[in-house]
Every structure is written in structure tokens, then in C-alpha cells.
Write a structure and sequence with these properties.
It is a single chain. This protein is mainly beta and about 775 residues long. The chain is built from 7 helices and 48 strands. It folds into 6 domains: about 150 residues, no CATH class; about 90 residues, no CATH class; about 90 residues, Sandwich (Immunoglobulin-like), CATH 2.60.40; about 90 residues, Sandwich (Immunoglobulin-like), CATH 2.60.40.1220; about 110 residues, no CATH class; about 190 residues, Jelly Rolls. Helix content is about 10%, strand content about 45%. The strands form 10 sheets. Strands 33, 35, 36, 38, 43, 44, 45 and 47 form an 8-stranded antiparallel sheet that branches. A 7-stranded antiparallel sheet has the order 34-37-46-39-40-41-42, with no helix packed on it. Strands 4, 5, 6, 7, 8 and 9 form a 6-stranded antiparallel sheet that branches.
């Protein structure tokens, strides 16, 4: 496309050259301009006679008006000399106070010699001589802030494209007899689509500006034309020389290309362990192959210090840090710029374990449904220097405590008693080696007997839920179903929904693990996921929803709601992985949430929005996702990508470009692993569910709206790449620039799931059924109050 644009510009440039040598200077008002604009040109004719004719051309409402005024040769010389001084200052310092003063003196001289054209005031002339800081408002008011800016001094340039310039006709001008070029003080262009090529005559540098742009040239001598005739409508072109030219544009290429600065060495090194907590500075080396001076900024997280420096040559620099804590992972970010390009690097290091380490708590931190019959809390202590330690343990509510001195590395326990059902407990471990302290806070919650009757333990209401077995493709174990409803009866639950509980039967029954995605007690709106141990395809599965217990602690247990083969589950509203595996997504680009397929979801703008995480991928994979695209275009837009930068993809689920009928493709590093489905059957603004599977020695498969769609022609011949440090990206290709930027998703993405096994066709079909139409998948009975 850019090549076609350049060709069109060259052709138009030829037209300008042909017209400019044959057309008599004449001009009419540019219909695209909404402001009244005047352009004054003066051509003093230095003649040997005692009188001289000065010609003024005024561009105003009635077109080009010529004014001939006779003055003495002496006055003409004085006017010309002062005009040259003014032109010099306007070129070099257009906005200085000295220039303003010379302008006023020049206009006073014109008034004194009675040479100001009739109908033009001194104030109007002054306003026209002063170049605007911002271009006047015109019909191209959609010009957006631009990505880049470039400029050159003493340069030649060509600019052409779709739009217009001011003045709309420019012809080269020479002083008669002397044949000296008369440059124009200021020209400008403000266009929707343009190409400007500019090169310095002495600097040996230059640039090309593409796309929507605005620019100006000071001290311009050359030719130009705005032209509009079918089929060439509203195009412009200009070529010539300028004392100074500047362009703001969508895209700019510099010549020769700038070498970005480099961050060559760091201390501590990236990923370094056992860094002394006495470290007082972070050091790094920077260099620029072009010899440019650089500016840097360094930040840390957690904050232990920061710093910056400007206009620095190649060398080693440092920032002071303090307050480092034992066995803590720190991240520091270095940003270096040479004025044109910016290089960034994010590094980590972990401090030495100077303080004692507390680990292996039992019960595990955040564990739920702990038996009230436990008799001790347990933990492990270690001091890497072998120092003797002292510890104190306390609990809340108080179920026991302990204090010991002169102990060494080992496992220790604290006796506890008196635990009760449905209570959250915290316990605190404080340990010191005489110099350094470590404090750990753990928590757990007790459950209820199994089986138990919720009505006996404070619940007041229940509802029967029935799953339609015809919606289940085959018998499935530990399958998670969706409950999405707005039920005014649920307004009787706690505002947090903590007392919402699911049981497999009435009376004394077994609790079912669940996760609440969202709950609004003011309306009774509930989105919950429930793990069903055995989901039957031959008979309806019945379970029960309990609510209405004001004293209940949180009954949800997201980590056990999803079976152990789920590697990551994202509900796409906060980046949290519901499985508890810690695969936390990091939103980029100011991504926002909106109404999704299930509750809310992330909305991607196609410009800079995406989500990312670094992880160690599984050796087998199933990917499930709901997507809603805003566009059908010629761009590969990635939905879910799991890859190691510079290596083959593990999973690349993407919407193909329109040349391929907007298929959905599942691809990877194996030549036989590339599938396409659904040619041109989906539309923008609608939700679709797709899933894909892959493993070694098996054909990769892809599913569309729950149904099998295609498979690879032969089994995959190699293992999936399980390299640690792989990147999961949702909404872009991933990897280092420029890989991700041209593949960003525009639309919505919801409910992304990654499994470390190949899910069966029945599992995928049933997953689609429960999410696609929850009210058809299951039904909710009337409220039943407790006894």
C-alpha cells in the first residue's frame, strides 16, 4: 500500500512541475479552509530610475489582488533592506521578541512611506507576518496526536499526498535583475494522508514521514500546488528548499537509522541470588554506537531507591539503594533514551537469607475445611548461618501458643485445642537469630463434618438445582458447571455471598466446592461455578443451593472448584488464575472491562491492550476461549498465544486475515500442526467459543462452538516446548517488539482456560453447553425454608 502511495505521489509531483511552468499566477479561496486567511508577498523592484514601483500581492476574500505603488529609489532600498533583516530573523527566530520588534518597525516604515495596500490595516499585516504556534482550525479537525516528530535545518524536501497546503499555489520567485531567490517566510500543510521526504544539505541526515501529518517550513523556496479534479481529488504536492522544516506524523523513518542505546551489564546480574542485604547501589553500563548522549531512569519494586541522569556518555552508572530485606525478590527497571529511541530492561535479584526462614506451615496457608480435630500447628525453621534461634507462636482466636529459645534448624510444632466448626484462624510465627527477625502470618478455616446438614448449622433457605442430562455429552468426573441467575430470593444471603453453599443432597450431605465469580445482594444476581464429582449423561444430576446464614464464614473454595488438570482458568476481569497455580495475568495498555459472555470481561482496543504472564507451559495442552471480534480485516489478530520468544509456538489460537476467509487457526511449531476452521461463518459483534488440543504422537484438534471441526493430517512429531520463562499472551502475539504490535486483538475475550491434558470431545461439548445457555443446562426450583 505504501508503494502505491509513493507512486501516486511521484506522478502528482510531475503534474505540479508541468503546471507550475505554464500557469499564470492566480488563486482562489481554498474551499477546505474555514478561516479567512491572507498571504502577503512583496517584490521590491530595484531600478536605476529615481522612482521605483513596488508590487504587493494580497490573498484575501476576492482572490489574488495586485497593488502597484510608486516610491523613490531611496525609499525602496530602505524598505528592501529592512525586509531582508526581517526575513532573516523570521527564518532563524520566528517567535523571538527581537523578531516582533523588527516586524513592528518594518510595518511602521511601510505606513510612513504610504505603501500599505488599500483595504489592508497595519494590524492585519502584523498578524499575517507572525507564524502561528498552532495551525488555524480547519476542516481537518480529526488530526490526532502523532507518534513522532522530525526536523531538519538547511534542507531540501518533497511532500505530497491527500490534503492541502497553505498557500495553495507556490511558484519560485526571484528578485528582478539580481535574480536572487526570495524565500517565503512560512508554509504549512495539515493532511490526512501524506508522504514527506526531507534531507539536510549539510548534515547528511534526513527522514521520511508517512500517514496523517502536519508540518511547516520556514524560509521556503520552491514550487507547490493543491489540486482537486476527478479522479484526483484534494491532493497536494510541494518540492524545494527550506531553511528549516519540521513534521509531526503517524510514522517517521530517520536516515541514517538511529542505533538505540544499549544496557550492556548490570550489577547485580539479572536473576542473581544471595545478594547481600548490605548492598548500597545498583550499577549498570550503557552505550550508544552513534555516540549520542543518553538519559536514564531507574526504579525499583519494592521501593529501595531510584535515580535518573541526563546527557550521559557511554559508561557505568549507579543509583543508591537501602533498606534491603532478607530473602526478598526485588525488581528494578532501567530506561535509557538517546532522544530518538528508548531501551528498557527489567531485571530481578533475590537477597541472601540473612534472617531465619519460616516455611512448610501445616495446615497450609489459606487452607479451608480443616478438621477441628487437629492437635498441633507445625512449621520449619532454618538459619543459613547456623545461628541459634528464638521463636514465639500465637493464635487468634486463641487455640494455643508457644515460646522456645536456643533452638536450631528443624521442624517444630505447637499444641492446639478447642477448635470449632466454621471459624477462620490466624497464627503468627516470630523468630530471631539475635540480629535479624522474621515474622510470618498464616491462616486457615475449619469446615463442617462430612456429611452434615446445613440447616443444623445456621442456614435458613435452600433451592434444588437440576442439570438436564441431555445437555451432557457423556459421564464426566469433577466437571465444573455454571450457575448464572438473578433471583430476588438470594437477597437474603450475606452482602458478600459468603454464606452461599452447595450440597449434593438434602439433609446430611456432602459439600460441593464452588467459586463465586460475582454476586450482587441488592438484586440477587449470582454467577457461580460448582464442581460436580460425577455428572451423568443418562439421568439428571440434582444438587442444592443453601443461603441465609448471617454468621457463616466464606464457603467458597476456588482452588478446588477446578479439577487438577486445569493449568490456568481466567474469568477475564482481573487477571486472577482461579486454579491457585499462581499464573497471574498482567494487564497492559490501560485495558478496560465491559459486559462479557459471562459477567464482565476484558475489552481490547487493537492498539496497545493485551495481557501477559511468564510461566512454564505444560507438555500437553487444551485451550478454551470465548471471543467477540469488532473487526474483519487483513490483520492476523491473536487471541491466545503461549510461546518462548524466538522459538516455536506451543499454542497460537488466532483469527486469520480476510484473505483466508477470516478462519480461526490453531498453529504451532510442528509443520503438521496447523488447523483452520469456520471459513467466513462468523460475524463481528457476536460471541463464539473455540477450543484446541495438542500433544506429541496425536493429531491436533480444533472445536467450534463445542463441536469437533478439524484435525491435523498427521500426528504431531515433537513435544510441546516446556521451557520455563515462556510467555502467555492474550490479545497479541507476544514476544519482543515488533512481534506483538501488529497482531493485537480488537474486541472482547472471555473465559480463557488452559489444561495440561487433552480434553475429550465430550468434555469440550459439555463445557460449551453449560456456558452458552446456563438456563437451559440447569433449572432452579422454588425456595425451601429450613425447619
Amino acid at each position: 500500500m505504501r508503494g502505491q502511495f509513493i507512486k501516486r505521489g511521484i506522478i502528482f509531483g510531475m503534474i505540479i512541475l508541468l503546471i507550475s511552468i505554464s500557469v499564470i499566477p492566480g488563486i482562489s479561496k481554498n474551499t477546505t479552509e474555514q478561516t479567512k486567511e491572507k498571504n502577503i508577498e512583496s517584490t521590491p523592484l530595484l531600478m536605476p530610475e529615481k522612482t521605483t514601483s513596488l508590487s504587493f500581492y494580497v490573498f484575501g476574500k476576492t482572490g489574488l489582488e495586485k497593488h502597484d505603488i510608486m516610491v523613490s529609489s531611496q525609499d525602496a532600498t530602505q524598505i528592501y533592506t529592512q525586509f531582508q533583516e526581517l526575513n532573516k530573523e523570521l527564518t532563524a527566530h520566528p517567535l523571538s521578541e527581537k523578531t516582533r520588534q523588527i516586524e513592528r518597525e518594518f510595518l511602521s516604515l511601510l505606513k510612513e512611506k504610504n505603501v500599505i495596500p488599500t483595504g489592508v490595516s497595519k494590524e492585519e499585516l502584523l498578524s499575517l507576518l507572525q507564524p502561528p504556534i498552532t495551525p488555524p482550525h480547519n476542516s481537518l479537525k480529526s488530526i490526532l496526536p502523532f507518534e513522532g516528530k522530525a526536523s531538519e535545518w538547511r534542507c531540501s524536501f518533497i511532500s505530497q499526498g491527500t490534503g492541502s497546503m497553505v498557500p495553495i499555489i507556490i511558484l519560485p520567485r526571484l528578485i528582478p535583475i539580481l535574480l536572487t531567490p526570495i524565500p517565503r517566510v512560512l508554509i504549512r500543510w495539515n493532511v490526512k494522508e501524506g508522504l514527506t521526504s526531507c534531507g539536510g544539505l549539510y548534515s547528511g541526515t534526513g527522514f521520511i514521514a508517512y500517514g496523517e501529518q502536519k508540518g511547516f517550513a520556514v524560509g521556503f523556496w520552491g514550487i507547490g500546488l493543491t489540486f482537486s479534479l476527478p479522479p484526483i481529488m484534494n491532493v497536494y504536492g510541494l518540492a524545494g528548499y527550506a531553511f528549516y522544516a519540521s513534521v509531526n506524523a503517524d510514522e517517521i523513518e530517520h536516515y541514517p537509522p538511529n542505533n538505540p542505546p544499549e544496557i550492556t551489564q548490570t550489577d547485580p546480574a539479572n536473576g542473581q541470588q544471595m545478594v547481600p542485604i548490605s548492598t548500597s547501589e545498583l550499577r549498570f553500563s550503557i552505550k550508544d554506537d552513534d555516540g549520542d548522549l543518553m538519559s536514564y531512569t531507574v526504579t525499583t519494586n519494592p521501593d529501595i531507591g531510584s535515580g535518573s541522569g541526563g546527557l550521559k556518555p557511554d559508561g557505568v552508572y549507579s543509583i543508591p539503594v537501602s533498606g534491603l530485606e532478607s530473602l526478598t525478590k526485588y525488581t528494578w527497571h532501567i530506561q535509557v533514551s538517546d532522544g530518538e529511541d528508548t531501551t528498557e530492561k527489567t531485571l530481578t535479584f533475590t537477597t541472601e537469607p540473612a534472617a531465619p526462614i519460616v516455611s512448610n506451615p501445616s495446615p497450609a496457608n489459606d487452607e479451608r475445611e480443616v478438621s477441628i480435630d487437629i492437635t498441633q500447628l507445625q512449621f520449619k525453621l532454618k538459619d543459613y548461618q547456623g545461628d541459634a534461634m528464638e521463636y514465639t507462636v500465637q493464635t487468634s482466636p486463641n487455640i494455643g501458643s508457644d515460646h522456645k529459645t536456643n533452638i536450631h534448624n528443624g521442624t517444630y510444632s505447637v499444641a492446639v485445642s478447642g477448635l470449632t466448626y466454621g471459624v477462620e484462624y490466624r497464627w503468627y510465627v516470630n523468630v530471631t537469630d539475635g540480629t535479624y527477625w522474621t515474622r510470618k502470618i498464616y491462616q486457615f478455616a475449619t469446615g463442617y463434618p462430612s456429611p452434615f446438614d446445613p440447616f443444623t448449622y445456621g442456614w435458613h433457605y435452600r433451592k434444588q438445582i437440576t442439570i438436564d442430562h441431555t445437555q451432557v455429552a457423556e459421564d464426566l468426573q469433577n466437571f465444573t458447571v455454571l450457575l448464572s441467575t438473578t433471583d430476588p430470593d438470594l437477597m437474603k444471603a450475606q452482602a458478600t455471598g459468603n454464606d452461599i453453599l452447595f450440597m449434593n443432597d438434602v439433609g446430611a450431605a456432602v459439600k460441593l466446592h464452588h467459586e463465586i465469580e460475582s454476586f450482587d445482594a441488592s438484586s440477587g444476581m449470582l454467577i457461580a461455578w460448582i464442581n460436580i464429582p460425577l455428572l451423568s449423561s443418562s439421568q439428571d444430576t440434582v444438587f442444592y443451593l443453601y443461603y441465609g446464614n448471617p454468621n457463616s464464614i466464606d464457603q467458597s473454595y476456588p482452588q478446588k472448584t477446578w479439577d487438577s488438570h486445569y493449568f490456568a482458568v481466567y474469568h477475564m476481569k482481573n487477571g486472577v488464575d482461579s486454579t491457585g497455580n499462581g499464573n497471574m495475568l498482567n494487564p497492559k495498555g490501560g485495558i478496560s472491562t465491559t459486559t462479557g459472555r459471562i459477567g464482565n470481561c476484558y475489552s481490547f482496543d487493537g492498539i496497545d491492550d493485551f495481557l501477559t504472564d511468564i510461566m512454564t507451559p505444560p507438555s500437553k495442552i487444551t485451550v478454551e476461549v470465548w471471543f467477540n471480534s469488532d473487526v474483519k480485516d487483513d490483520v492476523y489478530r491473536r487471541i491466545v498465544v503461549l510461546r518462548k520468544d524466538g522459538q516455536n509456538c506451543n499454542c497460537d489460537l488466532q483469527k486469520m486475515d480476510s484473505a483466508n476467509n477470516n478462519n480461526i487457526r490453531f498453529s504451532g511449531g510442528d509443520p503438521d500442526w496447523e488447523l483452520t476452521v469456520c471459513p467466513n461463518t462468523w460475524i463481528t459483534g457476536s460471541w463464539y467459543y473455540t477450543a484446541a488440543t495438542a500433544q506429541k504422537n496425536d493429531q491436533s484438534k480444533i472445536y467450534w462452538n463445542g463441536l469437533y471441526a478439524a484435525q491435523s493430517p498427521s500426528p504431531r512429531s515433537n513435544d510441546l516446548d516446556t521451557t520455563s520463562g515462556s510467555e502467555l499472551c492474550i490479545g497479541q502475539r507476544g514476544g519482543l517488539p515488533p512481534h506483538g504490535q501488529d497482531c493485537r486483538w480488537e474486541g472482547k475475550i472471555d473465559e480463557v482456560r488452559i489444561s495440561n491434558i487433552v480434553r475429550s470431545a465430550a468434555w469440550i461439548q459439555t463445557s460449551y453447553a453449560t456456558m452458552n445457555d446456563p438456563t437451559n443446562f440447569l433449572s432452579i426450583g422454588p425456595e425451601e425454608p429450613g425447619p
